[in-house]
Design goal:
The protein has nine helices and eight strands. With 311 residues, it is an alpha/beta fold. It folds into two domains: 100 residues, FlgT, N-terminal domain (Dodecin subunit-like, 2-Layer Sandwich); 162 residues, Rossmann fold, CATH 3.40.50. The strands form two sheets. The chain has a five-stranded mixed β-sheet, sandwiched between helices. The N terminus is likely disordered.
Length: 311
């Protein structure tokens, strides 16, 4: 009778964890759906000038603001098309479809400063520009090679919560730490290849070996999914007196160079008597500390690749 009781208690805790993670997945999916609906904004601080005609300062100020907003949109377009060869061919299309309609791509602006010098009126403004709208318009014009912020990153973090829930099929489960890292990478502009994409397309034994550090398998997996970078990690959770401890180890690999770029390890502790909440919070805290480091190293690596191309 006692054995049955203990079994039921363990099952209850396992079921509780499962239900919590399922709920987390639902809530997170809803949250990200709303986040995805938010437009991505580029902020530009820029100066605009205009000639004062017949002493009409109001007209000159308005013209200066419009010139600054157009220049801001032009700067964003230039930033997105740095790697496009033969861009002169699209000069007329850019003028007609983007520059002449620059106001359609501006969310808001505010004046930071203004100055009149003889017959010239100058303003300095901060402009918030709809980044995704410009990208879509560029793609519709056939300008597909938009910078490198669409680089693909394969991301898998194996979470071990010490609760036996399909451990051999971990790709079927929701990973809290993987989700948090993915969010930051997506916000930075990268395309994420996640567990949903690789599920049923990859040998689980190979993936397990890759996670333990088998570089050869890592690069083969990266090439299989046409990834520029691969991030693999392990997150382990342990219950301690009065709380929960999570340890996250993540490695970033360059598929092109076939080399390890950076390895980051982070340990976080959450004081709580609720094990379910402790697991979720400790994993997310660890991921929130690891993610910025990974992003920083990835950016530097890609900037180095672009510099080498130009040289």
């Amino acid at each position: 009778m006692k054995k049955r009781l203990r079994f039921r208690l363990r099952l209850s805790l396992g079921l509780r964890i499962f239900l919590f993670l399922s709920l987390s997945l639902t809530l997170t999916s809803t949250f990200f759906a709303s986040e995805a609906a938010k437009p991505r904004i580029s902020t530009v601080i820029i100066e605009g000038t205009a000639v004062v005609i017949d002493g009409d300062l109001t007209l000159a100020k308005d013209s200066a603001i419009k010139n600054a907003m157009r220049s801001a949109v032009e700067d964003v377009v230039t930033n997105f098309t740095k790697e496009v060869e033969g861009l002169d061919v699209y000069k007329g299309s850019l003028e007609e479809n983007i520059y002449n309609n620059y106001e359609n791509f501006i969310q808001s602006y505010k004046i930071l400063g203004e100055m009149q010098d003889k017959d010239t009126y100058s303003v300095t403004i901060q402009v918030n520009i709809f980044e995704d709208s410009i990208k879509k318009r560029l793609l519709s014009l056939g300008i597909a090679s938009i910078k490198h912020d669409n680089r693909k990153i394969l991301l898998i973090i194996d979470e071990k919560t010490n609760i036996s829930l399909a451990e051999d099929s971990f790709l079927l489960l929701f990973s809290i730490s993987e989700d948090a890292v993915s969010k930051m990478l997506t916000d930075t502009g990268f395309e994420i290849i996640n567990r949903t994409t690789v599920r049923n397309k990859i040998d689980l034994k190979d993936l397990k070996q890759a996670i333990t550090g088998d570089g050869k398998i890592v690069y083969n997996i990266g090439k299989q999914f046409n990834a520029d970078m691969v991030i693999l990690g392990v997150a382990e959770v342990k219950a301690e007196t009065g709380g929960v401890k999570a340890e996250l180890n993540a490695k970033v690999y360059s598929v092109k160079k076939e080399t390890l770029i950076v390895e980051k390890n982070e340990i976080t502790n959450v004081l709580t008597t609720d094990k379910v909440i402790g697991i979720a919070q400790s994993l997310r805290n660890a991921a929130d500390k690891v993610a910025p480091v990974l992003v920083d190293f990835i950016k530097k690596e890609l900037e180095g690749e672009n510099k080498n191309k130009k040289d």
